[in-house]
Structures are given as C-alpha cells and as structure tokens.
Amino acid sequence: MRYASKVRFRHTLALFLATACQASPGHHTGFGSTPDITTAPAASTGVGSTSSSTSGTSGTSTGEDSGSVDGSTSTTTEPARDLGVVPDFGDATPVGCKGKIDFLFVISRQPNMKKRQAQLAAAFPQFINTIKAKFADFDYHIMVVTGDDGWGSDMCTDLCPTVSCKVGEPCCSWYDPQWEGEQCCDLTYPCQDLDLVTQCDRTWGAGEVFPAGPNDEANKPCPIDGDLRYLVKGQTNLTETFACIATVGASGYGLLGQALTATMKKNINDPGGCNNGFLRKDALLMVTFIANTADYGFTGSEGTPDAWAKAVLDAKHDDDRSVVMLSILLSDNKWEPIDRIGALAKMFPYHHLEDYDALDYGPAFVTATGLVESACAGFMPPG
Questions:
Q1: Can you tell me the distance from the alpha carbon of 233 to that of 250, in angstroms, rounded to the nearest whole number?
Q2: What is the pTM assigned to this prediction?
C-alpha cells in the first residue's frame, strides 16, 4: 500500500550502539524454553526490580530454635503461660488470579504495520488456547488500543459517499507520481457507517471497535458482543473478532506510552467511561505492545517510562507482580535505551521482549503464557 504518502508523519528510528557503562540486558528465552522468571518473587522490590527471588535465608530453619544463645542446652523450665484465645491473622497464601486476566494490546498505526498486525492476529489463537489450557475457569477481557486518538481519514470522509477518486485528480489531496491513477482511498472505506462513529472512537486509550482509514484498516465495525469496547468471556467468533479489532492499519501514530497511560486512567474505566469495567481489581493484567518504530524523543509519547509505569501501578494497587509485559519491537539482546517501551516493560518482574522482525510471534506468546501462569500463581487481589 501507499504507506509513505498517506500518513500524517513518520518517525525515524535511529538505533545506536549501547554505551559501555550500560547495564547488560537480561537474557530471555525463545520458543519452548523456560522464561527467566518462572515463579512469583517472594517479595516485590518495586518498579525497576529485576530480582526474581529474595535472599537464600528466607523461610529456612537454623536448627537452633531450642537451647540457649550460646548453643548449650537450657536446664531452666518455665511454667506454661495462659495465652487465652490466639487471634486469627488470616491466611497470607496467594489465592491466585483464578483465571481472571485482562489482556490489553497496544498497537502502533505507523507505516508498514500491516504485516505485524497480521502476525499478531495469526499468533492469537494459539496464545489464547494455551492460556485456556492452563486455567480451567479462564475469564478474559481483551481490548485493543492504538497509538493515537484518531479515527478514519478526513480526506476519505470528505470523498464519501464515493471514494473512487484517483491519485492525480483534483479530488485527491495527496500526490505521488508512482501512484498516479491508483485509488486515492481504499474502496472499502466505510462511508455507509459514518453515523456509527462516536467520541470514544476519537479518545485516547479507548478500546478499538471500528478501525477505519485509507491504509489497510479493517474498515468495518467489529462484531463485539454486549455493546462494549472490549471482548469478554464467551465472545462469539473470538478469533475473527480479535483479528478485526487488531487490524488497525498503517495511517496513524505509534505513541504507545501515551495510549497506555490514558487506558489506565480511572475515569475511562468507571461507569460511563469508554472502557467501562475493562480493568478488574481481582484480575491479572497482561499488556502486549507491538510497533516497528521506537516511541522515543521529542516526537514520541508524552511522559517517561517511569511515569507510564506509575500509571499502571496506580491502576493495579501498586502491585508490580500483578502485571505481565510483552513488548514486540527489540528483543532483549538487541534492546537499547531509545526503546522506551522496552524500558517500561523491563521495570516489571514479569516481562519479555521480542524482535518485531521475527517471522512468527507464536514463540513470544509461548514465553508469555509461562509468565502469566507464574504471575497468576502468586497473585493476591487487593482487599
């Protein structure tokens, strides 16, 4: 498609070599191997932590519970004390997520994203089936948001009810000699459904339900059950519906950090908000980012990875172990600080970084299912 001509701007990814003083990135495994973190950390060390366990002395017995301080046997007998009724301090054992998982996919709409979105849709069925197999009572929310707050194309909307205008004709507002005579807009542009567009379709962080534009979008309302902006357990034709909402096209932006922050806000998840009920306090959250250009510098998202992480933690009651992060852009062994989304992901104990050029995203999701299982096992819903 005509990527260069149809987008509002293009970021330039200028990856540079990491300096010698940088801490070396973690080594995450590929398909079929065990992920770096396989059990929930015994104690959270907060955002920025990469530790997967506490010190080796935790929870062990010294074998010196009886006897005097110097190790000799005590000969003094103390009379038994009447302690009365011992208070019940409750069971601190993690209850687990019990199959409740909120899946958030944050997808770039920058040029050349068609292939990546198709690969994501292709990997989705295996991923969901693997998760289902691990949780007997699998209860999901699945939502897609994009890296901008736009909907459709003003140019194509102006050409409705017909979009048969050709490049080089006065009706087409862009021109490229190599595309002269080709369609100015995709013929599938949904002129007949413009009355279905709402303010939420143009709101940062709102779930995608009607991807539209001039460049490889689904260009149709997606058949989501229940008049929601996300999919819930029992969604009809789950695989096909996910493919629809994930085909967000390549005619927009890739401000993924900004989109994530907006999605975590309380008002958008509260009654009356665009994503009413998406985030559940008793559910694990898994966030998947996919882009082909880093969200960096003065042309990137507002804020910093620290600020984006705080938005997630605020929404998840400061529990960094209740979140799994998967970033598809630069793999761990290629990661550099210019990749701010990768930096965000690495702040959470359960994370994996995958190369966006991978021919198949399935192995990345296999690793992610292991992280989800481990995070769920140690999950403690807020009181």
A1: 29
A2: 0.77
